[in-house]
Structures are given as structure tokens and as C-alpha cells.
């Protein structure tokens, strides 16, 4: 048996050895000389045992000591490759970005949020609201989605996103419940919860000073119209990274939508490379923006009436011509045709139209179809039965277009709306995949000069190509404009904190 002496944890067998030798001497005095050899063998065996025990105890002590300082070194990549939908490869630099600290649970109250707008407007808002809940130590109730906008989509969160994955993938960051606990539901029904619209483009100090005290006092706070409620810049790095974690890891579409996306991509890939054109020339966008270039008088009247029918579309009287010349209108299908041809896009390339119903129908699409005959949509690639479960749900249809857009060889948005921005940012995250960011203000000027014959086709094409050489979604820092957050680069279009090693500077544009 090992006797431990002192604090060093080592075994001391001195007494054992001394007792062994005394025993051997007594035996030698009593036995005859004929047994000397036998006694020597006993002594030798005893010594071997003592030395073996000593060596064994020393080894065990060393192993225990090493065990306190050595552990298997596991990778600490904060976003798992296996959890990203479809065929996605993460940039190698991402492994150098550390995870935000795990949350210490302390429930300061329950946060309910109602998102407004289309799919990608709501997507960005969800990322912000999760981040706010995490840093306020609030329990987040699964967000409610907009059902009253122009599209009147009845889809709930679980109809678009994998709600169980959303909850479990963020379990180390924020507690998320599908609904309020039973004891608090009555308070909501009786109108005893505090409801408000957060101030746009706020930093976290606003939420600490204004929202946290309400949470602690009221226990349930409801935030409505949650789009663009967090600043683009000036936020701690861990907050920016958590926004990315929610966007790129937690917000996974349902398995049905993802499988449909895989099928569309598979069909397209069988025929070679493909370009996704986000042709944002739909009725709601034209009515909202007041952009009527190329529309006839009846269409202008229809769009104007629609704008007045929605009281939260604040701008009513809009000068369409001035807005277009300022680059604030989506390109028309005819303008888009000229731009794609000027950029040298192959006539025979597959072009997937990621959009809803194009305003003006076949008449407005004629020039684009003639220039690029391989135009396809989800409706032409899939059977009606395959689209039946999402057909009357604009957000679910947009989710399908989103997945196909991520996988395209080139993505070209004709307007920098929410879909264009969020897809741009996601494609940056996937390794700065080519996204042609059209300079609409310059393009409409060049197009008008070409159409009135003051600019030849060769010069027009050359100017278009040169002006877009550095507008391909390449690495860049966001433009920061103090006191004008709406005019600076949008975080979700270029979340560069999540893309590059922190010790390597990026160029600014």
C-alpha cells in the first residue's frame, strides 16, 4: 500500500523497505545455511515489489498532475459549417472570430416583438430583437410576423423558419419561448402590457436606459415595427457578431422550403452556370416609390391610388422623373436589358427571375425575353403541385428566391431594397460571391444618352463596364455617415466584422 508523505503527493516506501529487511535478518538467524539461496530470492522479490509500487505511484501522480492542465483542444468556431443550409462553404477566416460570451441566465422580463414589412425586412429585425433580448437578459417570445402589409401574407414564424432550430441554436445566448407562460397571457389579453415602437437606429444604451426599466417594472414589454431599430455602426463587436450568428446560423428556413430550394438549384446546375436577377419591378414597389417611368397613364393612376390607400406610406406626391434621375427608382425591365447586354452577359446564360409578378406583364418583359431567351422562374421550373403549399404566401415564395439567389454564380439586384441588401450581405459572408451592385444614378444617365443617340453603343458598354469593375461585392468596410444612419451602409448588406480576421484592415469606399 502507498503511504503518502508531505504535500508533494509522492509515495514513500522507506518504512516498508526497512520492515522487509528486518524480517529477512530474523529468518536468516533461524534457518540453516542450506536455505540461503531461497531467502535471497525472497529478498529480491520483495525489492522488486517495492520498486514497482514506487514507480506506479509516481506515474499515477504525474498523470493526475497533467490532467489538471491538459485538455483536448477543440475548435471554437462560432458558426458551424454543418448547420448552414444548402451547399455552402464558409470562409476560412471565420475560424479566427471568437464566439460571444455565453449568457448567464437572469430573466428581467419577457420581450414580445411584432415585425413589419416583407421577408427580409422582418429577417433583419428578428436578428436585432434577439440581440436586444440577449443583452437585456430578457426572455424572447418567438417573433410575430407582419400580416397586414401590402402582401397580406398569413404566414407565421414556424411556416417560414425552423422554429425549433431557432430556439435550440441560440440556447447559450438567449432564452426563447414559443409563447408566454400561462400566468402572463391574461395580462396581455387585458391590455396590461407596455407596447411601443423603439427609436430607429439606436445603440444599446437606449435599450439599457429606456427598455430595460420597463421590462423590470411591467414584466412584459411589446415592441412593434421593429425594422431598423439598431444602429449600423458604433456597437460592440460581440453585439455585431451575435447579429450575424442569428442571421447566418439560427434563421434556417423550414425543411420543405429548403428542399424546394435545393431542387431548383439542382435543375439550374444541370444546365450550367446561372444568374439570378432580382427584378424589383412589382406593383407595391412602384406604388411605394412613386416610380412610373415607362408606365402608361392608366398605370400611373393605378399606382398613385394604391399609394394613397396605405396611410403608412407617408410620401404621397412624388416627382417620378426627379426620383429616377437621382437613382432612387428600380430599373425597368427595358433598362435592365440594356445594362445586362452592356456588361457582356452571355445571351444564352440561364437567368432566374427572383421576383413576384412584374408590373405590366409580358409587354414590359418583351425586350428582356428577346435579349435573353433562357429566362426562368420558380413557376416554369417546378410543377404547380410542388409550389402549392407556398403559392399564396409571398414571404415563403421570397424565401425560395432567397435560397436560389445565395447559390447563383452572379446576383444582380435592380434595386437596393431589403432583399437585395440581405442577400448581398449573405453572399459576402459566403466568400464574397459576385454581386453586381448597380449604380442606378449613373446608369439612367448613360441609358438616356444612349437612347437619344448622344452616346454610341460601344461607348455606352465601355462606360457601364468600367463603372462597375469595383462594384462586385468585394471586401470593403461600411461607409459611416455621422448623424445620418439611413444614408450610411446597411449592416446586413456588409457585416464585415463577421467576414475578416480582426487584425487585417479592410479598405473603405
From TrEMBL:
Pathway: Glycan metabolism. GO terms for biological process: fucose metabolic process. The chain crosses the membrane at residues 46-70. The keyword Transferase applies. It comes from Quercus lobata (Valley oak). GO terms for cellular component: cytoplasm; membrane. It comes from the Eukaryota. It is found in: Membrane. Belongs to the glycosyltransferase GT106 family. Keywords: Carbohydrate metabolism, Fucose metabolism, Glycoprotein, Glycosyltransferase, Membrane, Signal-anchor, Transferase, Transmembrane, Transmembrane helix. GO terms for molecular function: glycosyltransferase activity. This is O-fucosyltransferase family protein. It is a single-pass type II membrane protein. Pfam families: O-FucT. Its main location: membrane.
